[in-house]
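[job 4471] stage=fold_predict status=RUNNING
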Amino acid sequence: PFDPILIEYFRLERELAGQPVKSRPIVVKIGGSTLGSHDTSLRDLVRLQQEGREVVVVHGGGNVISQWMQRQGLAPQFVGGLRVTDAPSLEIVIAVLTGLINKELVSQMHELGGRSVGLSGIDGCMIEAKIGNPELGFVGEVTSINNEPIRALLDNGYIPMIAPLGVHERDGSENAGSPLNINGDTVAGELAYALEAEQLIFLTDVTGVMDGGGRVIRRLDRRRANILFNSGVIQGGMIPKLSACLRALERSPIANIIDGRQPDALLECVRGNSSGTTIIEDFRSARSRENADGA
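[job 4471] inference complete, writing structure tokens
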């Protein structure tokens, strides 16, 4: 387990460095594949809310999108772990993410006693993006985040439940103002960065980041993560997850990739008992701080 005292140390260090003291939410990414019969993620979210913690949730839905695409005779395609989204696919992505999955999750949250509002990155122009790789079609790369809708919901006691869509930036191009599909992992990382989150947590259907031998790596820092990237160990859907963690770590002290199918996984992770992979910026500086504290 990663020492929760060290998490608090990082948080206080930033405050003492002259940064304004403000509320720092936990950003949680949940995937549709983790929401099974034994999963307690939504109950955990309600529990955290009842304990007074601020939480922002980004949800996925790739499996359901693929099912709906197949019903329409469209074959899902992926490049580097990212979904290829042509015009017909984009209509399905928007309908499924914002009209089906988002509202189901919000309904379940209220049934469990929570307070949540569902929205997408399009609402309030929360997430602006641009098309980065034309091979991916209408897939956006985030260019800016507007925190105001999120902050308004948090300040009024709601958990924002965010579907990972954005609006094309107003650059005068033919796509200006159009909706874009954005990888949910990427959105979670960008929101954690923009909100200076206390913690970023990915609830996945794997036990964590694996090494070349298929063993879970319990602790990572940026340097070791880059080695894994460069050696080709990180592949498929783990690429955007670990990339998002590294993005978040530019402003957040800690990120986690854990198995969301396990009961109480989210609660345990927030309390410092991560069952998967914990990522921080630099092990060496963390150890030197611990040694200095113990001196």
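[job 4471] summary: The first strand starts at residue 26 and ends at 30.
[job 4471] exit 0
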